[in-house]
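Usage

Read records sequentially. Each one opens with the input sequence:
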Amino acid sequence: MLRVAPTIGTALGGPVGGMASKFLAEQLLGKPDATEAEIEEFILGASPEQMLELKKLDQAFEAQMRALDIDVVRIEMEDRKSARGLFATNIWPQVILTTIFTAGYFVALIMLLRGTVAIPEETQSVVNVVVGVLTAGMSTILAFWFGSSLGSMQKSRDLVEVTRK
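and closes with the structure output:
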């Protein structure tokens, strides 16, 4: 989504996400009360022509935000900055929760891989889902502590530098 429609993609993950969702619902689906699931389903199944339309909608959304004097990137950056400021105040809750989650994840994974725990066949699918969710949680923890990517960190530094000027 961020590659095709960066402004809308950024807005969806931030404080103006509701505006972006409503804009997409009206423009893509023609119904302002469409659910996020309906919007997501449309985008995931979009044809190349529809993706091009989404790109055009992104430009229209960006123009609409400028007309309303809303800087989506700045708002997202401020939102993250305030969250990181809170993190800087007291780091121990994050450290403790990360340690507990990571230790529990690896203990459970090792027990499953070694066969220490017998899993009844009828609950195997549930266990697979739980392991998948826990694994996704690990990637979120890693992204929290180390950032999503080196390029993202550089982009954040560049944005901070631009806003200072």
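Summary fields computed downstream for this record:
- Residues 92-114 form the longest helix (23 residues).
- Residues 90-164 form one domain.
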